[in-house]
Design goal:
Shape: globular
Helix content: 25-40%
Number of helices: 13
Oligomer: single chain
Order of helices and strands: HHHHHEEHHHHEEHHHHEE
Bound molecules: heme C
Distance between the termini: 64 Å
Strand order of the largest sheet: 1-2
CATH architecture of the domain at 36-154: Orthogonal Bundle
CATH topology of the domain at 36-154: Cytochrome Bc1 Complex, Chain D, domain 2
Length: 325
């Protein structure tokens, strides 16, 4: 029974994942009026465009491969089971799924998370450090250049410093948790709609050593400093993208409840950890006020541990403050 389901799911999910220019079936919220709505180029556009130097095409394709097969850097840049495309669906092009191109057209800009003006490379480094529980390719390296080239190509024809962007990020449900949000109801939603792919224990599933369904908590998942630990971020992501193949099918309340449930489970430490989760929560409260980190669950303080997952260090060296004094 279990294997039959598994084979069916593999056929359903793995095949389209390998197809080029994945189009996930969508049932998305209406685009608000007056926003810039981006049409990202396709691989056919890239191939057909003779104005792009063949050498640049190669570099863009390498960046794309890094983005969707990030596990090839396991143990180097990545220490969990995710790829960039695990959260940025449709190869980082899909509206309402954190399309990545706005980082190209809105940076350099001030970022609240690290309180300084960030470059595109630093923004990419942020997702390596937190979402991938890893450490970024060196600034200015070939690998960083390839990723940046891919992001920039996806941004083709988008206006620079336009900030009124439709379908950007994961946040359309608003930031404040509903007053009646429920962990227990979230668990019921999880078991009915998510566990079949992501596992009862949230650890995801692998086949022949390859990640087929990524983990939602535990050592293989995003760490406590990742944007996805904010309950509102996960709720909006889930609402518009999960269950895979049936986006938009959960009620808003169920999306909030299940986001609270998965983000109340343990995961690798926040690289900004001071040695005390409650203190770290207070220190980065502008971020953690939206997460469950440093709060109590079943008599334990979430995030109070020294576990960095399979990463043999806490904080990547690339995470540095920047000042212009
Ligand atoms: C665990 C989920 C997750 C993974 C994996 C992940 N990201 Fe992200 N990423 C996020 C979230 C959450 C945001 C913030 C979106 C928001 O502001 O609502 C984000 C934002 C971004 C942005 C900025 C987009 C903008 O609107 O400015 C870029 C660029 C980006 N990620 C690149 C990457 C790259 C490259 C990788 C792989 C190395 C990656 N991400 C892996 C969750 C993830
Ligand atoms: C049919 C299988 C399937 C079901 C059911 C499903 N997911 Fe996913 N989920 C995936 C896959 C596959 C990805 C990675 C996306 C990709 O690679 O295209 C993913 C990605 C995610 C991610 C971001 C990556 C990560 O590992 O953190 C979250 C969060 C998530 N799913 C939550 C949920 C929740 C909550 C539910 C239930 C409401 C759910 N999913 C149901 C297959 C599924």
């Amino acid at each position: 029974m279990k294997t039959t389901w598994y084979a069916m799911l593999l056929a359903l999910v793995a095949a389209p994942l390998q197809a080029q220019d994945v189009k996930v079936p969508v049932n998305l919220p209406p685009m608000p009026e007056g926003k810039y709505v981006h049409e990202a180029p396709t691989l056919e556009d890239l191939e057909a465009d003779e104005s792009i130097n063949p050498e640049l095409k190669k570099v863009i394709l390498k960046g794309r491969d890094m983005f969707i097969n990030t596990q090839q850097f396991r143990g180097e840049y990545v220490f969990n089971d995710l790829s960039c495309s695990s959260c940025h669906l449709g190869e980082g092009k899909l509206n309402w799924s954190g399309p990545v191109w706005p980082a190209v057209t809105t940076l350099p800009d001030f970022r609240g998370k690290n309180q300084h003006v960030n470059s595109l490379e630093e923004r990419i480094a942020g997702c390596f450090s937190f979402s991938m529980n890893g450490t970024p390719p060196e600034y200015g390296s070939d690998d960083m250049l390839a990723l940046a080239a891919y992001h920039q190509w996806v941004a083709t024809n988008a206006p620079v410093y336009e900030r009124n962007i439709g379908g950007r990020g994961f946040g359309h449900l608003g930031r404040e948790m509903p007053a009646d949000i429920s962990y227990e109801k979230g668990q019921v939603v999880y078991e009915a709609n998510c566990a079949i792919c992501h596992g009862e224990d949230g650890a995801g599933q692998k086949k022949d050593g390859q990640v087929v369904f990524p983990p939602l908590w535990g050592d293989g998942s995003y760490n406590w400093g990742a944007g996805m630990v904010r309950v509102y971020t996960a709720a909006s992501f889930i609402k518009n993208n999960m269950p895979l193949g049936k986006p938009g099918s959960l009620s808003d309340a169920d999306a909030w409840n299940v986001a609270l449930y998965i983000n109340s489970q343990e995961r690798p430490q926040d690289p900004r950890y001071t040695g005390d989760a409650k203190e770290t929560r207070e220190k980065y409260l502008n971020f953690h006020k939206y997460s469950m980190y440093g709060t109590e669950r079943d008599g334990r303080t979430l995030g109070q541990h020294d576990n960095t997952g399979s990463k043999p260090f806490l904080k990547p060296a690339a995470l540095k403050p920047r000042t212009f004094e």
